[in-house]
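Ticket #4471: structure output looks truncated?

Reporter: J.K.
Steps to reproduce: submitted the chain below (235 residues) through the standard prediction queue, then opened the result file.
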Amino acid sequence: MTPLHPIAGTSALALGLLLAATPAAAVTVTEAEGDTAAQAPMGSSSYSRFDTDWLSDATLALFATGGASPLFATSSTVEVRYLGTQATREASLSFQGLALFDTRSGCNFATALVDEFCLIDSIGTARTLGDLATGTTLDFTLTAQPQRLGSPLDQRASAESFSSLASARWIDLGGGQYLLGLEEGNDASYNDMVFLVSGATATLPSPALPVPELPTGWLLAAGLVALAWRHHTRR
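Returned output as attached by the reporter:
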């Protein structure tokens, strides 16, 4: 058997180290799926819009005392469905920089004040996050725009960003489904924007036990010893 040439061995080692250093695949997101859902105002505001298949006034009231711990992915995919808003200002939801939903698309505050039948076209649609590691913390970002219309209570002077880890509450529906409500004001209702998250858990999943590996330095040293021994025995 022809001994491994030192240059070839070095190249193979370099290739192995390069592959080991390759980062994990980036999270992906699908295009929006599904149709605009039936929706209606809920609560005390005529400009709110919520998916009537999933939500009611009674359900919205539960968010104030909902769970506050983080949610985690149970597999490589998590589906997020938009269910509605009662916030006056326009906002967008994202995950790790990936845009998911515009929360008042097609029916902003000004339009809703004069058109009680306008629909938010993103309500009822869903997008799927892919290539997640099991146990990934589901930290969504809500970016809300300024709102200078309406009463002083409705107005917001500047844009703000909110993390779901600090500004959300959830309701466990069972089967890995959670209603997730975000707060963008100061009334602590946690139902300003509501989403359905599927494929999640509030308990951090146990990671798979890693296969023990020898440190790279040991493997390199063992390879050099083997090459030296082979060269010695052929002399």
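Triage note (M.O.): checked the attachment and the full token line is present. The longest strand covers residues 78-85.
Status: closed, working as intended.
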